[in-house]
Amino acid sequence: MNKLLKRQLKKFLGSEIPPNGYESLFEAISDAYDAFDSDRQLMERSFDMSSQEFNEVNRKLQREIEQHTITEQKLRESEQQLRDMFDEHSSIMLLIDTQNGVIVDANKSAQKFYGYDHQQLLNMSIYDINIMKKETLRHLINDVAAFKENCFVVEHKLSTGEIREVEVHSTPITINGKILLFSIIHDVTERRQIQEELIKTRKLESIGILAGGIAHDFNNLLTAIMGNISLARLDINDSEHDLLALLKNAENASVRARELSQQLLTFSKGGAPLKRTTSIKSIIEDSANFCLKGAKVKCEFHIDDNLYPVNVDKGQISQVVHNMIINANQAMPDSGIIEVSCSNINLKPVNKPRLPAGKYIVITIRDHGVGIPPENLNKIFDPYFTTKEQGNGLGLATSYSIIKKHEGDIKVESEPGKGTCFYIYLPASESNIEAEQPAKSDLIGGKGRILIMDDDDAVKNVFGQFLTRLGYQPSFASDGSEAIEMYRYAVEENNPFDMVIMDLIIPGGMGGKETIEQISRIDPDVKAVVASGYSNDPILSEFTRYGFCAAIGKPFNISDLSSILHSVINGAQLG
Amino acid sequence: MFIEQKIWDKQQGWHTVGNGKLDTPAQIVFVFGDIELVQNTDILSDISKSYPDSQIVGCSTAGEIIEETVLDQTVVVTAVSFEHTSIRTVCMDIESMSDSMVMGERLAQALPVDGLSHVFVLSNGLNVNGSALARGLANRLPRNVAVTGGLAGDRDNFKNTVVIFDANVRSKGIIVVGFYGTKLKLGYGSMGGWSSFGIDRVVTRSEGNVLYELDGQNALDLYKMYLGDMASGLPATGLLFPLSIRIDNGKSHLVRTIMGINESDGSLTFAGDIPQGSYVRLMKAGLEQLVEGASGAANICSQTMGMIPQFAILISCVGRKLVMKQRIEEEVEAIREQFGEKIPVTGFYSYGEICPAVVHQKQCEFHNQTMTITAFSEK
Fold first, then answer.
1. Which residues of A touch B282 (CB under 8 A)?
2. Model-level pTM?
């Protein structure tokens, strides 16, 4: 019987035993008491268990919340880091919706590059920026989204209207169910221009190697031809007009051949201009006027008075101006005005063309002729590129090469039907303008023993004839070794040479540069003149550095030679 | 509709209950009795002799209901003679619990559908998955035909249950009774009265109606922890803590009770499915809520019927009986208060109930821990 019921029976009825006849009733009451106790215990246990579980769940939740808070914080930091990386990265970055091309996000570099603020860019689509045809661009976007394409070069328009060439690296990413293109954009406008320049320079270099070799041999031949013509002219009486005219024609042809040879040589690698600090004004005016003699086209000059002096090879710059004016003239067959201007300019690093910052003069030659088709604009400085039937394709290529060797730049703008404008930039010189040496045309004779070193018999013959005519005693060596031996012998015999004229390059033998070094050891006071068919060879422009007293470019005439020999024999150094 | 009711018990043998006496042969006789008694061929033979032309259907129980009384170790018999209603019965044996849905479909297909107005099902209580059986029946029956019924019990032993069909007992049997007739009015209602408590738990491992893990914890261990000393009474004591399964995204729930345990793999077998991934909570009962639940079931039944019934079959879960103990009759009284004390009532304590979950809906569901009422009337 239930304990409580027992106590109650004892308390109220005086005995734990139920009264007779009520046993079943009390048994039922006892069962009910037990059931209640059992239920209560079960419930208490359940609530206790449940409470423990709730506590555990609470603790777990608390840990999860703490972990969640930490994770959220890390996520926020990570998101901020990614945001900063995106925003602050120096590369231009855009997020573009593939569906409609809308710009979903743009970093600061993009805002700076395109010239729009963040909100303006978000109100735009890539179709507003990329100048490609809309249909073509849509195909490109689809290809990128399908992983068929991820890097391409296109043209983007800035807020200023300027078109820039850009290299785009683009990857499709999915954000909030949308496929976006994450595009990293690099402005390659300058890089592409530099690459084009480099290609052009390499083309010129490769042609220069060929041209230099040809010109060298050509000049040797011309030396013999021109030398013999000038000797023939000396031997003919003035009364023989017809013969003199023929020789004159032959000499003129030789001079034109020399000019062609000079043009070829401007391409040759290492060919340096023979620079002098001078004023550009007279070079421009003289060259322009000279080549427009008798033409319908006229020049209008706007040349500033206080131009910076420039350190240039007068002949080469004349040639550049000459080429430009000839082109302008040919562009206006029905007459017209060529505007030629020149002014000072201080280039800042951001200015065009891409030249070091500093002082420059800029020559502008503008015609109002037929113009150049856009597809030809980037080819006009290529050697042998010409649209003229009679053109040799060397004029602008030569000009380009000359200006580059003067550390300048040359640019062109042209619009078909409206005309063309060339801008030539030349660095200003810090030196003062050098006085011009008056040209001497009379032959000046002299005396003395002169050793000629040249591998070409025809050239040696011309030298011999010229020197003999001028009163000198020539001796000949075919290469450096022979020349050294002869010079040493002459010194030892106490009958030294008064001068040595040596060719710079002797194929298969010792050339002038090495020979002068060794002869200088025999006779430190040796008077040597360097001659070369490579008239633009740096040694010719800096001959004193190599131990020579003077330089003479092939071909030459007897007058040039007599002047140089006279000066050298009499102790003057020609520089 | 005419009804005659009898009880057999050891003290008195057969004796009549109430005033009902049939003048015409009964079409159907419902027999609910203690597992040992219904296997007694003499008792079944007596019933068969008393109603030679009637269809006899019934099952073993965990307690018998007649009038306002809940009895143990008796056999209660209710013979019904309908005036305007015909009956078709089918019984089939199920070989494996996994065949439950197929059996439900086969049984439904065995009933002619013309004029079918209701189906009453009685199944063995241990060799069947009640959920699957209900699904199978619902799959093949017309949508306007509801199913009610229950699973047999065996006191609270969970060892051997039987159905009674044509005076024979069948431990693997499932019976369906089809009611035909336009004048028959059916009412049904099912309600529990249990309330969930404790934390939400995820079913992390289950197969059909076998539950292995809750929140990654062994399910049997969890029950043992809650039952304490009473764990030795499993699986019966497991009825004290049924599981509430959330369905329809938490809008409603189903109750599941334990039918068996497996100590070797720590699993619990329930009377219906416990879907893996579903959320469940332990449930507990309060006496008042259970009584209110029964009263609520009667109320729903009246609503669906639209009138006071002439006869009702009550099928209540054994778990309720275990909780209410001596007060179990209070739930029957609550129903009689709703229907009126003169209405004949029979029924039994079961291992599961079948009834539509929602008022005015015919789609049946399998339930546990409910009082499920099927009420009849002929206009």
1. 46, 50
2. 0.53
